[in-house]
Amino acid sequence: MTEDAVCLLDVPAHKTGTAFTKPVDPLPGQAISAWQAVRPEQPKAADRRTGEQVDFLFSIRARAISSTYINGTIIPMLRQKAGVPASDVRGVITSHRARSTITSQLYNAKEPMTLSCKPGSGTARPNQRSTTRRSAQTR
Hints:
Layout (H helix, E strand, L loop, with lengths): L6 E5 L8 E5 L1 H13 L6 E2 L6 E2 L4 E2 L2 E2 L2 H16 L4 E2 L2 E2 L2 H14 L4 E5 L6 E5 L11
Antiparallel strand pairs: 1-2, 3-4, 5-6, 7-8, 9-10
């Protein structure tokens, strides 16, 4: 995948809407592709909203990783590594807060934005950029 590619993310049906596909910056697309290349093969599991058999990105021993484990173990580890505080004026930083904040910033930007990492920091931050990108798909 080229660095200037736009990845397409398939978002499943959720509590407020139907499934849709959204173009995203290459950084999350590259991270997802890298994870899919090394993660153990997992069987499909039933989507709790639709009943459809789907591939879960994060699962172990044929079960989706719980949000309790993600918010209680993984997020604090990543947050500490990135130097991000445990909470802010809105409360504790969870996977939902981090995802919704970055997604909202990218979606609501007046100018095109991308995610980038500061050299050596490993932390992704939204940045404005106005370049055109060739299309590539990551699903």
